[in-house]
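[User] At your convenience, examine this fold.
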Amino acid sequence: MAATPLRYDDLTALFINCTLKRSPETSNTEGLIDKSSEIMLANGVTTEVVRPIDHDIATGVWPDMTEHGWKTDAWPRLYEQVMAADILVLCGPIWLGDNSSVMKQITERLYACSSLLNDRGQYAYYGRAGGCLITGNEDGIKHCSMNVLYSLQHLGYTIPPQADAGWIGEAGPGPSYLDPDSGGPENDFTNRNTAFMTWNLMHLAAMLKAAGGIPAHGNQRTAWDAGCRADSPNPEHR
């Protein structure tokens, strides 16, 4: 197998584990995160895992909710970690066939910062790769993944091919991913999809970094607001 010409040792990845369990309680989602993180670490990527449930994150759709009546808000600090990462992987469990309440909160807080711009006038999340990991013992992996991946691309993340992976046991009450004899850590389908997702995220993040991000043409909010609108009527530049 030919070696990839890309380099990954200058990449950083952030896994946000939207489990409902506080540390140090065992998180089945984190068990699957470890599979992806191991591949990244073996290829020089710096990785970090955060559990939002461990932090006092306010509810709302503004970048800092202390400016809107909340006494504390841990989101601005977590946002700094998000912006320092070339790869963002949103991870979480399935409850009632849908993403967890923590996943929804994190998506809302990411959305709260989606109007911020980078130094080229593009939306701030441009130039980063995004993916997701889903776990549970009830149906819903594809539904949850569709919601997460749509949200990430809408906010400005670039989504590679096959950017999701997950594991579920039998429908209904049953073993979770890390439970004895669940078969989760040995499941070939899950391991294959997790490996493909991880490599595709690394490939895409490396390509984006080498290219200096998404080209700044036709997608700059600052230029649009100034009336400089590529391939559109320019009210101030005729």
About this structure: The chain has six helices and six strands. The first strand starts at residue 12 and ends at 17. The beta strands are 12-17, 46-50, 87-95, 98-99, 129-136, 164-168. The chain has a mean pLDDT of 93.
